[in-house]
Each structure stands twice: as C-alpha cells, then as structure tokens.
Write a structure and sequence with these properties.
The chain is built from eight helices and eight strands, in the order H-E-H-E-E-H-H-H-E-E-E-H-E-H-H-E. The longest helix is centred in the middle third of the chain and has 31 residues, at about 115-145. It has helices at about 5-10, 55-65, 105-110, 115-145, 155-165, 200-210, 230-235, 245-260; strands spanning about 45-50, 75-80, 90-100, 170-180, 190, 195, 220-225, 260-265. The chain is an alpha/beta fold. Helix 6 packs parallel to helix 8 (about 245-260). The relative contact order is 0.17. The protein starts with a helix and ends in a 10-residue tail after the last strand. The strands form two sheets. Strands 3-2-1-4-7-8 form a six-stranded mixed beta sheet, sandwiched between helices.
C-alpha cells in the first residue's frame, strides 16, 4: 500500500495546480462554525526539493512515504523548489496547505448536529484534497528536475528558504530536504572531476561566514534525503564516494544547520536510515 503512495498522489491530482503561499485547501470553518480561539498549527512540514538533483522512483517513493503521516488535522505542509539562480529555475513555493484542527469534545458538544456533520464531512474531503495538492506539488517540482544546470546554489537558496521556516508559529517545524547537498556556485564547489570531492568543513564554513551565507530556521528539525547523489552518467562510471568524503560532507552540513538554528536529524546518503518523525 505504501509503495504505491507516490503514484497515487500523482494520479489523483487534478489538472489544477497551486502556487504561492495561499492555502491550497479551503477551510471547513464557516459563519456557523468559527475556528476555536487560539487555534495553532501542530506540526508544519516544509518539503524542499533541489531541482538540480534527479531522483529515481525509489527515492521519490521514500519522500512520499515520509510525507503521508503528516497529512493530519491541525498540521501544515508545503512544497518548495530551488535550483540555481538562472532563468526559469528560481526558488518558489509550489503548494502550501494548512489543515483545520479537530474540534475537542467540549467544542463538539456546543455545535448543532447538522453543522457538525457538515464539518466532519468537509474535514474528510479536506484531507483527500490535501493529498492531491501535495502530489501535484511533488509532480511539478520533480518534473522540472534536471542535471543539465551547471550551477547549484544550495547554500544561498537554503538561507532564503529558512526565513519562511522561521516565521512559522507551529509547535514543531520539520524540514524534509531532498537534495544532493553539493554546492556548486560562485561561493564554492563540492565537486572535483565530476565526483564529490573531499572538502575541509572548517575551510568551507569560513567561506560561508565571510559571505554571510548562514540561515535561520528558527529551531527546525532537518531530514536530508539524497546527499551525495550523483547523476546517472556519473553513477554508471562507478565513481567511488569514500566514507571520508561523505563524512566530511555530513560534518559540514551538521555545523551549517547548527549555526543556522536548526538540528540535522538524519543525513540520508542517499536514503534516510529511519522515517521522518
């Protein structure tokens, strides 16, 4: 069942696409049933897709599997894409969703049965529409992915995106970041001869500091999937990524996220070792 989630999300998406930060699903609250005072988002999941990284179907499925548990009342989810600062490849919020929280039993007791029945039916439909919208967002983000872009502005893009994460008032903020995490910009390059090079985390962090390229995620937990992932043509050449190379890459990003007020919970190279939770 879980194996077919990504395919289900894509197939069930309607022709309509959603963009920007406007809520892609309509609230079930109305004039007859106001949202409870002080209602707050429980968990907000920020799904961030690096379009310079091309994911295979297995990794796409893994991303979809990790999203499904967060499609729950009271949560918020969004899909954001980024690549390099070139024409047609800008950082953009593809879809944004805020799901209504469930009513407490005391709140339900104060609502008439017809209004309550309408709200419950709407809530079920809202969850279904949310899944479809997220599926459409993933399809749009992955559909534009390419390994033909010469540059990859991971650091600057994440710094910009972090400002939106920080603004969230959710009880918990989680970032699911799908990226090879390989910077290749005017700041620095983590490549050498089409392969991942052994970086010196200390020297790279000095470059980041000099260029003011740290972000502020406001205490979010970060899960990375796809770290060190190389393009298919490079993989076919059987380029070796040593434990030292991947270790230095992980050490750099652990420190970068720490200084950017976030905690790196898992560094999937390329797959996550445990589910996002």
């Amino acid at each position: 069942m879980m194996r077919n989630l990504f395919a289900f999300l894509l197939i069930s998406m309607s022709v309509t696409t959603f963009a920007g930060t406007q809520n892609a699903v309509q609230s079930c609250y109305s004039d007859k049933l106001k949202a409870p005072n002080g209602a707050k988002v429980g968990t907000e999941l920020f799904i961030i897709i690096d379009q310079t990284t091309v994911f295979d179907s297995e990794l796409k499925q893994s991303i979809a599997n990790n999203i499904k548990p967060f499609l729950q009342p009271g949560n918020a989810l969004s899909v954001t894409k980024f690549s390099a600062f070139t024409k047609g490849h800008y950082t953009d919020v593809v879809v944004n969703i805020v799901l209504d929280a469930e009513l407490s039993q005391a709140e339900r007791n104060d609502v008439s049965k017809p209004v309550l029945a309408k709200f419950d039916q709407c809530s079920k439909s809202q969850l279904k529409l949310a899944g479809q919208a997220i599926g459409g967002g993933l399809k749009a983000a992955f559909g534009d992915s390419t390994n033909t872009i010469d540059k990859s502005d991971v650091l600057t893009s994440l710094k910009d995106i972090s400002a939106r994460v920080k603004k969230s008032t959710a009880d918990r903020k989680i970032v699911l970041l799908a990226s090879d995490m390989l910077e290749n910009s005017s700041l620095s390059s983590f490549y050498a001869k089409q392969a991942v090079r052994l970086i010196d985390p200390k020297k790279e962090l000095e470059i980041v500091t000099k260029n003011g390229a740290f972000g502020d995620f406001g205490g979010a937990d970060v899960f990375v999937i796809g770290a060190g992932l190389l393009s298919e043509d490079v993989q076919s050449a059987k380029v070796y990524r040593s434990p030292q190379v991947m270790g230095s890459l992980k050490n750099f990003w652990e420190e970068w996220f720490d200084r950017s007020k976030a905690k790196l919970m898992d560094f999937g190279a390329p797959a996550l070792l445990s589910p996002v939770s």
